[in-house]
Known about the structure:
- InterPro entries: Methyltransf_25 (IPR041698), SAM-dependent_MTases_sf (IPR029063).
- The chain is built from ten helices and nine strands.
- It is of the alpha/beta class.
- The strands form two sheets. Strands 3-2-1-4-5-9-8 form a seven-stranded mixed β-sheet, sandwiched between helices.
- A hairpin with a 2-residue loop joins strand 6 and strand 7.
- Helix 2 packs parallel to helix 10.
- The radius of gyration is 18 Å and the shape is globular.
- The site of S-adenosylmethionine (SAM) has 20 residues, from helix 3.
Amino acid sequence: MITAFDHIAATYDNDFTHGSIGALQRQKVWDYLEKALPDSPLSILELNCGTGEDAVHLAGQGHNVLATDLSKEMVAVAKSKAENMGLGQRTTFIQCDINKIAQADFDSKFDLIFSNFGGLNCIDAMSLQNLSKVASRLLKPNGRFIGVIMPAFCVWESIYFLQKFKVKKAFRRTQRGPLLAQLNEAQVETWYYTPARIETMFRSEFKLVGLKPIGFFLPPSYLENFFRNKQGMLNKLDSMEDKVNAFSHLSNYSDHYLIDLELTKTTS
Ligand SMILES: C[S@@+](CC[C@H](N)C(=O)[O-])C[C@H]1O[C@@H](n2cnc3c(N)ncnc32)[C@H](O)[C@@H]1O
């Protein structure tokens, strides 16, 4: 099956990963992981790994990463990135749908399941609820599930579209059912979830141990062109972002938020 993300795999790093906004947002996620994770090498299962930027970062820090993605092309980019960086031994990449992760045959349990930048927005609420059960079976006791997800409202997005008089688009994340997000020529179904909704969905297996906005002051990456010659402004927004790091309620109004859940109940 060819997915919408297959078409953008070759340009994803150039457009997002190495874009000024994408890189700054990702750094916020890495800052959190650095503080939250123990120094000892962890066994990590990454969902929707894309081009493997986080997998190679985590492997570079000594962790072992089994990274998965639905898109064959994304997995191919990720694999060659890890090999070029000499991190092939600590990374494994496989093409796998989040919805089929329960059927995958893993040798052992994981310390952490990690999903960055909206992969979880590509699955519907029933699948997410089911993922909580699956994750509880795949994790070691007290294992963590860390997801970076797009909430149902984003201040930046609303201001951007309102000043263009595009009222419907300004509140598009609040609509019922999936939104068809445009990815070059292809479209991808996208669901937006408030942090409270995710917490409720995962509540029977996990407890909330961390929540922080990613992109309250930092803008969404589709504003990259606007900020191209405004690095100074972006740096200011970046330091303002650090100041609101601890204001978890701003997660409801940001481009993304990071939610950190700890396993409380192990299911066999
Ligand atoms: C916005 S990209 C994020 C990629 C990467 N995590 C990052 O931080 O750059 C979303 C990724 O989710 C993947 N994806 C979408 N639906 C998926 C699914 N059902 N199962 C697994 N991966 C999926 C896409 O192929 C894409 O690589």
